[in-house]
Amino acid sequence: MKNNEGFSLLEVIITISLAGVVLAVMSRTIKTGLEVQGFLADKNAAVNWTESVLEAYKNRDHIQEGIEDSSNSFIRNLEILESESLPKNYEMTRVEIIPYLEDGIRYEGLYKLKIEVKFNCQNEEHQNELFSLLYR
């Protein structure tokens, strides 16, 4: 039935249905964007923390070969000092320091650092790794 002074009932129902579909798509897009933004914020915090650990090792007077993790006093003190910048759901940091070898030749005073940072994001375990050479 057509109302001469306005829209028909069918036109109103179609318009509301289309608006509902558009709103559903928009809300899903916004939700996905927020999830991605949250993940990237955590990943960025992990990268920043990894770089902070590298800088701390660069400024360290004595480098000792081996593996250090969050149970080590040096890393634990860093975690306390920079607790605000740690990734959410941060788990642990592991640093492996080994002499640099190439073609069986050991370069005196040159070390290879491998820094691993583990954290949880969106109910999944993630890991950020950084490799660097350090000369002492």
* Number of separate structural domains: 1
- Our count of helices gives 2
Shape: rod-shaped
**Side-by-side strand order of the widest sheet:** 1-2-3-4
Mean pLDDT: 90
Classification by helices and strands = alpha+beta
The stretches of 5 or more residues where confidence is low (pLDDT under 50) are none
Instruction: State Rg.
Output: 27 Å
Terminal Cα separation, in Å?
88 Å
Largest sheet: 4 strands, antiparallel
Quantity of strands, as a count = 4
Q: Beta-strand percentage? A: 25-35%
Order of helices and strands: HEHEEE
Question: Helix content range of the residues, please?
Answer: 40-55%
Key words describing this protein structure:
136 residues; alpha+beta; four-stranded antiparallel sheet; rod-shaped
